[in-house]
Design a protein that fits this description.
Chains A, B: InterPro entries: cNMP-bd_dom, cNMP-bd_dom_sf, RmlC-like_jellyroll. Chains A, B: Pfam families: cNMP_binding. Chains A, B: This is Crp/Fnr family transcriptional regulator. Chains A, B: It comes from Chitinophaga sancti. The structure is a homodimer of 183-residue chains. By secondary structure, chain A is an alpha+beta fold. Chain A has a domain of 110 residues: Sandwich (Jelly Rolls), CATH 2.60.120. Helix content of chain A is 48%, strand content 23%. The first copy, chain A, has 9 helices and 8 strands. In chain A, the strands form 2 sheets. Chain A has a 4-stranded antiparallel beta sheet. A 4-stranded antiparallel beta sheet of chain A has the order 2-7-4-5. In chain A, helix 8 crosses helix 9. Chain A starts with a helix and ends with a helix.
């Protein structure tokens, strides 16, 4: 899975892939388990092999907001904490039993130094992440909850089938009751 | 300015910088002038040398939303259209007389192929862009207009002094009247 995932962007020789692989470890988590808890030092980002994650921000009024979901083939972390090697301000937990590749910040730097062509892979991932984030900003600025629901349904129909409505409401920024009226 | 800007992230030899420089051109625009108009083919992204830009999305109800501002040392474009080489869905215009470096998508690809270490520079820029976008998403999800104004004031005090209140309202997603009550 890792090789396919990388080679969608960057072809690797067998030797290169064997080398790249040594920078990744796999780990299994159960439903409801935390990969990152608010306040943790964030050592890893994660590539989902199977399962489903939610990245949650708990605000000053103790209200949960879902920043993003991550399913198979998606990367996730508290990226600000990951890149700045600071404490997590968000939590990352399992909506389903989940298996991930773990990739540490230290390994990120080591791999880029040892095999600079991997920077092209991360550049493309980062660019697409930025474009998706900008699309979400536009959606929050210009659309109401019903329109945001419809956009999500269009972009990721399979995701919507797996996400409980209570969590979907926290992603769309509406109450569970409002969501019920919309869908 | 270009050399300082790049070398904040990536040291270059004199030869390397001379080479990099050939991929950039400069251009001056007057206040109110368009760098990108909705519907245009987006050939360039821009690095602001002096001046101030706004990136605007005009929604289905003909309402303007300001996606971002860009001042000295900031990059801007309709990035989705730039990276996918598709038509602009946003417009980029001058709030002040502005001078920019123009960097075409063609040159972006050529420069990365010819001098792969530049991918490290773009990777870091892209990563920071993603983190800023994610911060804005969180701010839109969790904060009201008054809090968003205060966050912006804290992050970019010099920007706020240069942006007319009518445009600031379109960035914060409130009416001009609501903004007047807040600030």
């Amino acid at each position: 899975m890792l090789r396919d995932h990388i080679e969608k962007i960057l072809p690797l020789t067998d030797e290169e892939f064997s080398f790249v692989q040594t920078f990744f470890t796999t780990r299994k988590y159960k439903k409801h388990q935390y990969l990152i808890q608010e306040g943790d030092e964030v050592k890893n980002c994660y590539l989902v092999i199977s399962g489903l994650l939610k990245l949650v921000y708990n605000d000053d009024n103790d209200k949960d907001h879902i920043v993003s979901f991550a399913m198979e083939d998606w990367w996730e972390s508290d990226y600000y904490a990951f890149y700045t090697q600071s404490q997590a301000t968000m939590s990352l937990t399992c909506i389903e039993d989940t298996e991930v590749y773990c990739f540490s910040f230290e390994n990120y730097k080591k791999l880029c130094a040892a095999l600079p062509k991997m920077e092209r892979f991360f550049l493309q991932k980062s660019t697409f992440g930025f474009l998706a984030a900008q699309r979400r900003i536009l959606s929050l600025l210009t659309s109401n909850a019903k329109e945001r629901y419809e956009q999500l349904l269009k972009q990721h129909p399979s995701l919507l089938q797996r996400v409980p409505k209570s969590l979907l409401a926290k992603y769309l920024g509406v109450s569970r009751e409002t969501l019920s009226r919309l869908v």
